[in-house]
Specification:
Layout: H1 14-35, H2 52-58, H3 61-93, H4 101-108, H5 110-113, H6 116-130, H7 136-160, H8 165-172, H9 177-206, H10 209-214, H11 222-232, H12 236-269
Length: 270
Amino acid sequence: MARARIDLKRYPAFGTLTWACIVLLYAPMLVIMIYSFNELRSITNWGGFSLAWYWKAITNPQLHAATFNSIVVALSAATLGTVLALCAALAMSRGRRLRYQDTGFAIINLPLMVPEIVTAIGSLVFFLAVGIQLGLLTIIIAHTVFCIPFAYLPIAARLQGIEGYYEEAARDLYASRWETFRFVTLPLMLPGVIAGYMLAFIVSLDDFIITNMVAGPGATTLPMAIYGMVRTGFTPEINAISTMMLLVSALFVSASYLIGRAGDRKYNAQ
């Protein structure tokens, strides 16, 4: 007997609760975006429309260095994390059934389940124990570990949706394992790889807790610079920086989702 589908929209007050959660999550962001265009220095009194705070944020030399560090860290961590996630996804989906495969899957996704502060403290203790000097290198290592599950999930989901007979046909045509991966598997799973990379990049770019814990002198990233500015006084310049970071994050997350969807539609059409 088939189970009846559960329509959550029919439950009383479901729509009200949904809109309440959306307002609680996004209303503060909307307020920050609005007051980033405030002509006055005040963050509570509106004095007219102005782009002066955006110009001040863009021309701030301290933010230039922090932004450069953030981009270097995000590019490095996203690249390494995506490569490791790709290898893990291939091993879990295309390799032989491992004896402790479920445990391996749990370990790969452990950073998603463990509180971020625990990951940050564990990373700091590890670096101090092995004698690695804190700096950009330690941030990249910590971010790489943290970004692996974010890259792994889209890649694994894409790989599981690809039927194995494509690779079997390539092997029947005398293609080597590397040729099969290069010309068949990788092109088919490329949308998932790109989506995972973009998601890992933006997660690394926006991270503060882990970065603040494992960063050394001179290794200031953009979130750390913003936090330092907030401690000395909240100004519309901070609103402008936060708005730009929010827009970049929304752009990358949306692009990651759309690329994954486009890849699925193209594969289903084939």
